[in-house]
Give the backbone structure.
Amino acid sequence: MPLTPDDKIKYKALYLQTAKPYVSQMQEIIHALQNGQEDEEKLETIHRSAHSLSSQSTMMEYASTAALSHVIELIFRGKKEKTLEVTPEIINETAKAIEQIKASVDAIESSDQELDLTKDTEALRGLTHIQE
Amino acid sequence: MKILLIEDDTFFRGFYSTKLKEKGMEVEVAPDGEEGFNKIAVFNPDLILLDIIMPKKDGFEVLSDMGKAGLINKIPVLVFSTLGGEKDVEKARLLGARGYVNKSFFDFDKLYTRIMDLSKKA
């Protein structure tokens, strides 16, 4: 059986407990990248944070938050695999996307409802030509 | 039944270990592949749920090390990830994983059935 309404209530606190640090980590790293401070560890960490946030958001049925996180995951996966050139423009748009994800997680905490991040996801996909 | 859950994500570790314990299983967790591999000999699990993207040692490396240690045919491994690409599934199978479960699309009954099936075949 899939996630029950009781499961969603029961595990919401755990979700927030883990999602918020991932968002903070992503914010910190993207700001460093905007300032030209790039290294392997930062890239790996932001990739893994976006991946984890996407995964657990999917599990908790916060599909919009999951989708935007997934695009960010794919951006840094593409950078790691050298299949995507991550330009300063992409970094700046990713920074905005991360702020939207933070807002969505805050909304989940305060109202149990995530934000609709469809337009942000489409915009980032469009800029990066990420299809997956 | 003893399950070793090797998973770096705190949420999934907490969620799945709780669910498995509610089903009466004995669950040991590890937050990365290195600690997970080291716990195999100590905990002697009946089955391993193994994430792929992890720090220190990823799931593919754990499978590879299990193969080198002669463990891959003795302890069934269910790869437990959100990577759904055919390449990754195939890579895991070639390294000896017995199955693959997408952890984000939760269906505990199906997971439980797969665990029971795999542990019987071991």
Remarks:
- The mean pLDDT of chain A is 94.
- The two ends of chain A are 27 Å apart (CA to CA).
